[in-house]
Amino acid sequence: WLPRGEVIVDVARGFEYEPLRIKEYIQPGQRELNLRLKRWTNMNKKNWYSGDSHVHFLGTQGAHTESMAEDLNVVNLLQSQWGSLFTNKEDFTGHPSVSQNGDNIVYVSQENRQHFMGHMILWGLKNAVMPWCTDGPGEGDIGGAMETTLSHWADAAHEQGGYVISPHFPNPNGEPATLIATGRLDGVEMLRQTEYNHQEYYRYLNCGYKLPLVGGTDKMDSNVPVGLYRTYVRLDDDQEFTYENWCENVKKGRTFLSGGPIIGLNVEGAQIGDVFRVSGAGEVQISAFAESVIPINTLEIICNGRVVASAKSTGGQRRLEINEKLKGDSHSWVAARAGGPSYFGDLNHMDVWNRGVFAHTSPIYIECGG
Q1: Nearest-angstrom CA–CA distance, 58 and 52
Q2: How far is the C-alpha of 230 from the C-alpha of 240, rounded, in Å?
Q3: What's the pTM?
Q4: Are 241 and 300 within one domain?
Q5: Which helix (H) or strand (E) holds 310?
Q6: Does residue 20 sit in the same domain as residue 51?
Q7: Structural domain count of the chain
Q8: Residue 344, Cα to own-chain centre: how many angstroms?
Q9: What is the per-residue pLDDT across 310-364, written as a single tens digit (0 to 9) for each?
Q10: CA 332/CA 310 separation, integer angstroms
């Protein structure tokens, strides 16, 4: 069924295709309308594969269908509990569900939650880690006691070869500091663009912890497209795209979060997630770029939590670049980020959360003098 008469058609597919808006006339009885989108970049051919860290309330087949429509390679579909409601129980198999052509993977795993200590995403589980939630509403049962800790959940996931992500970092903010200090996290997730979550992330990096950054939606209904925030992960040239390889490279920090822009960072050949070693104080050459179907205004290089270089466009551009030398005399980290005119909060998607259009890399770590 198609509406008759003159219509305006909007078509978009992820961040690697040019969106299309076109006016068409639908004839009486017409049942098909064929349109073609132009791909402006192909990240898979560059060994980058995208995934949503955090999805609820889809079935496995629905997750495949929606993610292929959004040009997304991986969906982490998470079981969880809301009191007496347990979701996606029937979808859990302990194995990835892989499309016939191999470029789309859905893995059903878990989000375990406690309302104060925090929430925890467990990827790649072979067996359930129980209890899913604890200590009363709105996560556990009414009147329930606190039966366990996030640290226990993390250990149980790692024992079976799973991966542990802190969702919507850093909230709830009870136990994340312990998880980071004890090395129990394989990554932290941003699903909003706020000064607070950036500052918290930078504080931990400044303490010397290596924390990969991932992006996800926490999708719970059709107001949020799967992959609106997504994690791009770089695989080695000789690596096959599999769920395990994707997760392993998240753990190595070879990631950037995207809510629209494609972003890159390089320190004299070192790539995102790498450790770049220098013998002593001096200068290093840093380059960054961001390119987007949604025009962006700001590209910044962050070093130890401070903006040290930037490129600006008042009217917005498809591509921004930075090439700068950075002086340093101690261990440090650098990352790149891109967004609207002031970076925070002034260029937004139209989803129900009004999320910012931005991208942020995981760091490159610079070790100075051993």
Answers
A1: 13
A2: 20
A3: 0.97
A4: no
A5: strand 306-328
A6: no
A7: 3
A8: 17
A9: 999 999 999 999 999 999 999 999 999 999 999 998 999 999 899 999 999 999 9
A10: 18
